[in-house]
């Protein structure tokens, strides 16, 4: 007998989501703005993060799949926000899942878990 897949029983709590983003921006701010969007993403991923070079000011954009439940969205947010912090160090040689990313992940994780 396999494990049952958890059912999505709770509606997405937008107020809580906004509180988490606000707290992240305050406690784990980056030198560049971070835009977070819940949107349709390729089926091969649940989210991603990249640098957007706009005409006015570059920024990070985190995309998170609308198809995932809120608890999974938080996991993706933590992972991707840690990239923003690690890439913020100013060292262009920082790899995606470097020790700097690990430290950033732990910091972001604590903030999100204290908020939710």
Which strand order do you get reading across the main beta sheet?
Answer: 1-3-2
Based on helices, strands and strand pairing, what is the structural class? alpha+beta
Instruction: Report the sheet with the most strands, covering strand number, pairing sense and barrel closure.
Output: 3 strands, mixed
Helix content: 40-55%
In quaternary terms, these chains amount to single chain
CATH architecture: 2-Layer Sandwich
Strand content: 15-25%
Shape descriptor reads globular
Number of domains: 1
- Rg over C-alpha atoms, rounded to the nearest angstrom: 15 Å
**Any low-confidence stretches, pLDDT <50, length ≥5?**
1-7
Helices and strands, in order, run as: HEEEHH
CATH class: Alpha Beta
* Head-to-tail CA distance between termini: 33 Å
Number of DSSP helical runs: 3
pLDDT averaged over residues: 86
Describe the overall structure.
This protein has helices spanning about 15-25, 70-85, 100-115; strands at about 35-40, 45-50, 60-65. The chain is of the alpha+beta class and about 120 residues long. It has a single domain, classed as Zincin-like (2-Layer Sandwich), CATH 3.30.2010. It has a three-stranded mixed sheet, covered by helices on one side. The model is unreliable at about 1-5 (pLDDT under 50).
